[in-house]
Amino acid sequence: MLSGIFDTRREAEMAVERLVQQQGVDRAAIEIKPLSAENSAGIDVAGADAKRGEPTEPSGDDAALNGRIAVSLDRDETDAHAARDIFEEFKASHIRLT
Hints:
The chain has 2 helices and 4 strands.
């Protein structure tokens, strides 16, 4: 297992895209989760997730999506050292290879 913690959602998403595009990692093999409620939009169905006939206008009160993000993947999915380099490139902390 390779895991790391990213300070921003953008850094986590960039690392995931690099893993998928350059290392051929199956997106389904990557686990991404917020470390706190600060980076979660909640559980209510809204916007594009809601099955309504009419689209809704953005309300402007979207979740801030702040806070740290944990990303992990099974090391059998990719070259662990190359994946670690990607985590480091996008400033992951607490990188662990087990």
